[in-house]
UniProtKB/TrEMBL annotation:
Superkingdom of the organism of origin: Bacteria
N-terminal signal peptide: none
Name of the protein described by the UniProt record: MarR family winged helix-turn-helix transcriptional regulator
Protein source organism: Streptomyces tibetensis
Domain HTH marR-type: 1-145
SUPFAM superfamilies tied to this protein: Winged helix' DNA-binding domain
Pfam families reported for this sequence: MarR_2
Coiled-coil segments on the chain, per record: none
Amino acid sequence: MHAKSRPAATPEQALSAMDQLIATHLVGQHEIAQQVGLSVTDLTCFAYVIEAGENLPTAGDLAARVHVTTGAVTGILNRLERAGYITRRPDPTDRRRIRVAAQPDAVARVREVYEPYYARLTHLFADYSPDEIAVLHDWFTRASTLAATYLEEHCRPD
């Protein structure tokens, strides 16, 4: 595929477009969370459990990712467990720790909600060359790292 001609944009225009995407995404996350019977924070925590795959996270891992206290993550995990989204498993190397696993049927329910959106995004990516996709991947990866670092530096309670 040949790269399409793209309109010129300034960094300010790119930031504005990013802000619009983030705002729309936040509204969408709220709507999707309601569809699956969760809060946005609970859905985000569940997404991190899914992302971890076989490397099951601990409650502490999830608290750090979601930027909540370990006490708050206990409440999140209690709700997710009651709703059938996760199970807690003992850590095989440390009996004092608990690992969190996603329930396969819950993963399927959440993916079913996201699949039409991801299909549209995949279709959108088809308009970009492999080199452009590489730039997008690089930018998203670096921007995510930058955002996480900023949160750690400026948004963590002392």
